[in-house]
Amino acid sequence: MTPADVTTIEELYRSEVRQLPRLSVEEEQELVRRTRAGDADARDDLITSCLNYVGFMAARYKYFVLHDDYLDLVGIGNLAVVEHLDRSLLRDNPCAYLRGVVKFTILHYCFSHASLITRPQQTAPVYTVSLDTARSDEQPLSQRLAHQESPLDVKQPEYTFLYQALEQLPPQYREVVSCHFGLYDRQAESLYTLSRRMSANVKGTIAYLMMYRALSRMRTILMKGGTIDPEGNGHRKMQAL
Prior knowledge:
It is built from 13 helices and no strands. It is an all-alpha fold. It folds into two domains: 106 residues, Rna Polymerase Sigma Factor, Chain: A; 81 residues, no CATH class. 15% of the residues are buried.
């Protein structure tokens, strides 16, 4: 006997589920009617009728979880059917509701357990009736805002040294930088548009080269010009550009 001749637990389960009868719409409605009337056997049959769909969804989404197998997803789907059976009886179509619950539960499990690190559940939003009402031990929003600095008190960044370095560039370089970044109240333009405007015979690269050389020169000016930017902020600003 070879390992291929040994039937696995998954294969045994699938063979058992395949032998279950497929119910028609009328038979499902009859089971629902008897279950609502309190028939325990009909309740069990209604749960059993969902096993085929649970197995189908587990086989479809088992590839999205690396550390769980087919039977793990089957158990999650079957448990969802049992837990939501009573709620489904309040719906117009309980069988369709149970199938939707199975699909959502398996998908949510695959999303949150795709790796060994489980993704946290989304917490419910905290509602308040007033911005002055404190949440738990926090201060009211009005008091917290009173201790914060006003936007007018925040020190604005100084760009004078950048404009001074820009003025030392050749006119063509200065024009490309000013037009591309929208300086001096200009409308920002792409480097490709600037290239096509400079020459119709190029493939849209001349402005890219000029921008690269202009920024390199500005970095050199800012790094050498200690009187212009003694703190070296200009070099960091040009790296951001």
